[in-house]
Amino acid sequence: MKRTLLVLFVFISINSFSQGTTFTPAIVINAQTGSNPLAIDSGDLDADLSNPSDVNKSIDIVIGTYFGSTIEWYKNDGNGNFTIQPLVSSTLTGIYDIEIADLNGDNYNDILAASYAENKLVWYANDGAGGFGSEQIISNTFNGAFKIIAGKIDDDSTIDIAAIAYNSGAISWYANDGAPWTELNIKTTPASAPTDFDLKDIDNDGDLDITVAYAGSGVVELYYNPLDPPANNPIVFFEDTNNPVSSGNSGGLYDVSIADVDDDGFPLDIIKADYNGNVAWYEKEGDGTFTETIINIADQAVPYRPSNARIADLDNDMHNDIIVSNAITVNDDIIWMESNDDDTFMMEVAIDATQFQVYDLTINDFDDDGDLDIASISYQDNDQQDSSLNLFLNNKIILGVSSNSIDIIKIHPNPVKDKLNFKGSFSAPLNISIYNILGKKIYDKTIELNSGLDVSNLQSGFYIIKFEGFNDTYKLVKE
């Protein structure tokens, strides 16, 4: 009975305040980044989230530029004000993707990059204060390096690397067992022009699976990770589903990700965007096949060219919304579609129409107010010469009226991958409980407020956090 009451409280509290949200006009962080940025990510790069003495606990931003040959990181003062720091690199050319992860296990986030022009996968070690070391090679023969993702692929404690190569068609992973890195196959036979992929536990079995999008065929495929390699072939960890997620009904695939589109927990869904103007999501059925649902974007004077389709709860109503960015130089550059709470979505609302070719964006709580904001890169601006980094702050009012705990206690980052951090004005330890979406308590621990909590073993999905002595609840999204 107690468990049921908790669930009712959470949903009644949230739904009664669900009224959508708006965003600020573009806040220009840098009006002239390195030329033609293609990649962006966000996370704690100066270790202020884990440092109790640092009052500016915040989410920072890193971008990679294709023709500018720069990796730039921007320090956040905690209120969404960013200052560019010394360049991580000014020599790596043709950067196509960027990723933040603690690759060497020292509790400081490092930076990974994929260089299409140089056929490289590289990383830069963080010294703990936001300074970065020299380029370290994961591979310099990855022909047409396109995308790179970090995650725990095998059954040890280290963060591994997965990557795709557009030119060679390679879909590979690298076990983090120390240099030199050894390339292992995810798909043994290269396919034509993989353009994007994602790495998440789609089937809730405790390991990370991979979905891949192919530009030439328009097919989306899924490869399951059985965690333990087959005895007769110890280097192949992943299993082909032998049943594509999509059958190739649209070419020009640009973006694919694993997410809970319909808010039903596991199994997770898959969402894609292609250059022909299509956004669609796929729900796994009991027989292992996937059902496609098209997301309609209203007709405009010229076709919309989606470069990203992201899933996030922008209005704090416990239902995931869709955020889409545009890869061409006309029409709305970033739009969002609010969930109707029934597996459908409202008509799109423009967040911004001032940028040119938004090839990538990142979603995080940049101003530390409890809702999700958006940072994006404009590949070229109105004069078609300069490039920019822009921020859009979410104006959603923080939920919860029964106490002031949400104003006093903050959690970072949210969504979270591995480590959840807390900050606030309390000096005494606090008792924290974590509940799954069914209201079952799965975690109960006493923590110091300005300390971190390892949540890497939590499965991807939604959770509710409650602190003993406070009535407010927090929604946590585990990536």
Beta-strand portion reads 35-45%
Largest sheet: 5 strands, antiparallel
Classify the helix fraction into a percent range: under 10%
**What is the general shape?**
globular
- Separation of termini? 30 Å
Please, how many helices? 2
> If you compute it from the alpha carbons, what radius of gyration comes out, rounded to the nearest whole angstrom?
21 Å
**Uncertain spans:** 1-19, 398-407
Assembly of the depicted chains: single chain
Counting helices, strands and paired strands, the structural category is mainly beta
* Total beta-strand segments: 36
Q: What is the residue-averaged pLDDT?
A: 82
Structural key phrases:
479 residues; mainly beta; 5-stranded antiparallel beta sheet; 4-stranded antiparallel beta sheet; 4% helix; 40% strand; disordered N terminus
Give me the secondary-structure topology.
Blueprint (H helix, E strand, L loop, with lengths): L1 H14 L11 E4 L6 E7 L16 E6 L5 E6 L5 E3 L10 E7 L8 E6 L4 E5 L11 E4 L5 E7 L8 E6 L5 E4 L8 E3 L8 E7 L8 E6 L4 E6 L14 E2 L5 E2 L5 E7 L9 E6 L4 E6 L5 E6 L10 E7 L8 E6 L7 E4 L11 E4 L7 E5 L8 E6 L9 E5 L12 H4 L1 E3 L6 E5 L6 E7 L4 E7 L4 E3 L6 E7 L5 E6 L1
Antiparallel strand pairs: 1-29, 2-3, 3-4, 4-5, 6-7, 7-8, 8-9, 10-11, 11-12, 12-13, 14-15, 15-16, 16-17, 16-18, 19-20, 20-21, 21-22, 23-24, 24-25, 25-26, 27-28, 28-29, 30-31, 31-34, 32-33, 32-35, 35-36
Please give a structural write-up.
With 479 residues, this protein is mainly beta. It is 4% helix and 40% strand. It contains two helices and 36 strands. The protein has helices spanning 2-15, 405-408; strands at residues 27-30, 37-43, 60-65, 71-76, 82-84, 95-101, 110-115, 120-124, 136-139, 145-151, 160-165, 171-174, 183-185, 194-200, 209-214, 219-224, 239-240, 246-247, 253-259, 269-274, 279-284, 290-295, 306-312, 321-326, 334-337, 349-352, 360-364, 373-378, 388-392, 410-412, 419-423, 430-436, 441-447, 452-454, 461-467, 473-478. Strands 14, 15, 16, 17 and 18 form a five-stranded antiparallel beta sheet that branches. The longest helix is centred in the N-terminal third of the chain and has 14 residues, at 2-15. The protein is globular, with a radius of gyration of 21 Å. Residues 1-19 and 398-407 have low confidence and may be disordered.
